Structure formats: structure tokens, C-alpha cells
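Chapter summary example.
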Amino acid sequence: MKSGANMHLRGVALDMDGLLFDTERIYFQVGQVLMERRGHTFTLELQQKMMGRVGLSAVGQMIDHHQLDDDPVSLLAESDDVYGDLLLGELRPMPGLAEWIERLRTSGLPFGLATSSRRKFVDMILPTTEWSDDLAFALTGDDVTHGKPNPEMYLKAADRLRVSPTEMLVLEDSGNGSKAAVSAGAVTVAVPNEHTRSHVFEDVHLVAESLADPRLWELLPQNTNA
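The structure predicted for these 226 residues follows.
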């Protein structure tokens, strides 16, 4: 496996949900609430379809799956209300997050956020961290027209970093997100969690065990002058 220095990495883009924070657990609770209100069951299968998708596209999967007659905009607003009520009380960092952020800092590479989550929720989460000021950018689902697995998010991330996508390392936890990064041409590392271990991670550079995986850390240079 090539090192980050040998791949000439010049920047890093990070997904958020399921990679940096265990929000997939919260999304599952939201799905359960919404479906119970409608006499249906929220399943892992449905959650998998929704992962990585932006707002209306995500709830569209919910509507199609259960053939609901809900208006997508209204269902999204209801979902946002439930998620917002749960978020800060249920938010948990993924294992190894603090150490990974420190490794990014010591690498000297600029790094930013590229998440399908809505801007208003990112604005709730980032102030709870000690590293939000270190981010070179924060792209959200509100900043793209086409959500993952479309590569738009990561093409924009490379543009924010002012690098070629091939010079950018992307970390993703889901199949949809990894496909978006691979399609953009980025060096893609999948870091699946308990909700996404069954996903297909085709053409990724590495499937890491966690944010603490030494193989992931070795991709980063010690510093940009090394």
C-alpha cells in the first residue's frame, strides 16, 4: 500500500454521520418514530437505502419504500423536528475521533467536512467539538444539488481545498458515500460502522477497521514538509 506522501496527498475530506459521530443510531430512532406514527416499521434495509442521501432524496426513499402519501417537504420537516430534539442529548463521537483529529493536525494537511447532513444540524454539532476552527471548510447537504452517491460533494470539496480530487483523501463510512468519493477520483478509505459493515465498498483504497487503524494513519505524512 502506498503511503500518503507517495500519493502526494494535499488535503483531506471527512464525512460526518457514522464516521466522526454515531448519528446513524439517532437517525434510526427518528425513522422509528416517523414510521410508528404511520403504522409502519423502520427497518435496517430502509436505513441502508437512505444513508448518504441528502434531505428530500432520503425521505423520498422512505416514501417509496412504504408507498406513503406524505408530501416530501412536510415529511422532511417532521424528520428534522424529531432529529433536532434528539441530537445533542444523544450525540456520541466515534471511537478514536480525538486521536484521529490530532493525527490530521500533525500531518499539516488541510482538512474539511463533506457531509450530507443539513447545515442547521452541522451548526449544532460543530460547537460541541474542540476542532471546528481547524476545518478548512464545511460542506453540507444544503451545498449540493445532487447527493451521494453522486460525486458532486467531493468535487466541491476538492475545489475548496484547491487540489485535484486525485490529491485528496476521503474518509467515508457508507457505500453511497464511498461511491461518491471514488467517482470523484479521490483516494477513498471506507471506515464502516456497525450499521454499514454489510455495504459494498468497491474500488476503495482501503477498508479500515476504525479511525484508529494504523493503516489509515500511515496514509498521512508526518508533516507537509516531510
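To summarize the output: The chain has two domains: 11-22+93-217, 24-90.
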